[in-house]
Write a structure and sequence with these properties.
Elements lengths: L1 H22 L6 E7 L3 H16 L3 E7 L5 H12 L6 E4 L9 H7 L11 H8 L10 H12 L8 E5 L6 H10 L3 E5 L6 H6 L3 E4 L17 E4 L3 E4 L7 E4 L4 H4 L5 E2 L6 H25 L17 H7 L5 H7 L7 E4 L3 E4 L2 H5 L23 H15 L34
Parallel strand pairs: 1-2, 1-3, 4-5, 4-6, 6-7, 7-10
Antiparallel strand pairs: 8-9, 11-12
Helix pairs in contact: 1-10, 6-7, 6-10
Keywords: ATP-binding, Hydrolase, Ligase, Multifunctional enzyme, NADP, Nucleotide-binding, One-carbon metabolism, Oxidoreductase
Pathway: One-carbon metabolism; tetrahydrofolate interconversion
Family: In the C-terminal section; belongs to the formate--tetrahydrofolate ligase family.
């Protein structure tokens, strides 16, 4: 019963969020839904997601654009949402109008916000043996949770997936394979399809043809997951149509040990898995804010100690974009100037205004020793010790040598020396 299991998942998510908010009031998982046009079926699915998100205590906002919006403008808005730290998941409601590339739109969503799991990185990781996708596509993930919650043992079983779409068929075959099932993917060109189905302990139908899989095709006691969503005429319904799956339910239910109904099977699980992915994304975001992993550049110590210029030439500076990522700066907060320098936008202060201020150490009024340990050397040494040795984020702010009458004495003005900072 997908409806009951999905309801239980929403309730657990709600409780989980409430408990985390008691510790951190800023913890507010947020989903942004992007819809282009006014397709009635898309609007129905969006309403379902908005309602489910509210029940799960997840902030969910709909951005709706006209049918004739250009692809470039839509991509601009997606990039805006990518750069908004208050948004943890972005879902583009498919399909989009024909003049817009579905691949371009789904690929534009940042990997860490791709809660639909359709981006190239997530699909690629899912397809790899031992891959680690950030998010698993919602419907395939829902199928697997449905099997697990229903007590179905997958390991060593023969599984047949009917359909090879990027949205359901292919991803669910990867998940079944990773769960140690022996998987066969069938499609419109498969010969003797009923023969393959007859050998299957688990059948996943996602072919898009109403009532396609017949009960007589099934092995006695097989588990059947019907992912199909097809509307057929029905004069008894107010809308004049009703929703059916890819499996002929009436005949299949006589043979299968377990079977998902349509509606009420996989559909509610898809939405529940979307909400689960949003919460996982929010967790990852807050975890990244709490921890930093800075990798110091390797310094090979030599005897005798080389000259400063020799040391500097043996080092290769870290790319400034990599350094920025290590200290928690987002790409939109950075304005690179070449490979090793950048300006940081002041909007980062707004993002971090809730954080406790760091400590400011002023190094001043030092008379250099005979070995040259002046203000610059001391400042850089402190930062090396704090960052490189203790793992604390620290920045050295060394002033420029003045251009006054003392310039050039002792290697620079007021102890400028010959030190070089390499990030």
């Amino acid at each position: 019963d997908g409806t009951a299991i999905a309801k239980s998942i929403r309730e657990r998510i709600n409780q989980e969020i409430t408990e985390k908010q008691a510790v951190n009031p800023r913890y507010k998982p947020s989903l942004k839904i992007v819809q282009v046009g006014d397709r009635s079926d898309s609007s129905t699915y969006v309403r379902m997601k908005l309602k489910a998100a509210t029940e799960a205590n997840i902030e969910c906002d709909l951005e709706k654009y006209p049918e004739d919006i250009s692809e470039s403008e839509l991509l601009y808005h997606i990039e805006r949402f990518n750069n908004d730290p208050s948004i943890h998941g972005i879902l583009v409601q498919l399909p989009v109008p024909k003049h817009i590339s579905e691949h371009a739109v789904t690929s534009a969503v940042a990997d860490e916000k791709d809660v639909d799991g359709f981006g190239v990185a997530n699909i690629g990781e899912l397809a790899k043996r031992g891959g680690k996708p950030l998010f698993t596509p919602c419907t395939p993930k829902g199928v697997m949770v449905l099997l697990s919650e229903s007590g179905v043992d997958i390991k060593g079983k023969n599984a047949v997936v009917i359909g090879r779409s990027d949205i359901v068929g292919s991803p669910v075959s990867y998940l079944l394979k990773n769960a140690d099932a022996t998987v066969t993917v069938c499609h419109s060109k498969t010969k003797d399809l009923p023969g393959y189905v007859k050998e299957a302990d688990i059948v996943v139908a996602a072919i898009g043809v109403p009532g396609f899989v017949k009960g007589e095709w099934l092995k006695e006691g097989a588990v059947v997951i019907d992912v199909g969503t097809n509307y057929i005429p029905d004069e008894t319904k107010k809308s004049g149509q009703r929703l059916v799956g890819d499996v002929d339910y009436e005949s299949a239910v006589q043979v299968a040990s377990q079977i998902t109904p349509v509606p009420g099977g996989v559909g509610p699980m898809t939405v529940a898995m979307l909400l689960r992915n949003v919460v996982d994304s929010a967790d990852s975001y807050f975890d990244r804010q709490k921890s930093r992993k800075i990798t110091p550049l390797h310094l090979k110590l030599e005897q005798p100690v080389p000259a400063d210029w020799e040391v500097s030439r043996k080092q290769h500076p870290k790319l400034i974009t990599k350094l920025a990522a290590e200290i928690g700066l987002s790409a939109h907060e950075l304005e690179p100037h070449g490979a090793y320098k950048a300006k940081v936008g002041l909007d980062v202060l707004k993002r971090l205004e809730h954080r406790k201020n760091g400590r400011y150490v002023l190094v001043a009024g030092i008379t250099p020793t005979p070995l040259g340990e002046g203000k610059s050397t001391t400042t850089i040494g402190l930062v090396q010790a704090l960052a490189g040795q203790l793992g604390r984020i620290a920045f050295a702010n060394v002033r420029q040598p003045s251009q006054g009458p003392t310039f050039g004495i002792k290697g620079g003005a007021a102890g400028g020396g010959y030190s070089q900072v390499i990030p």
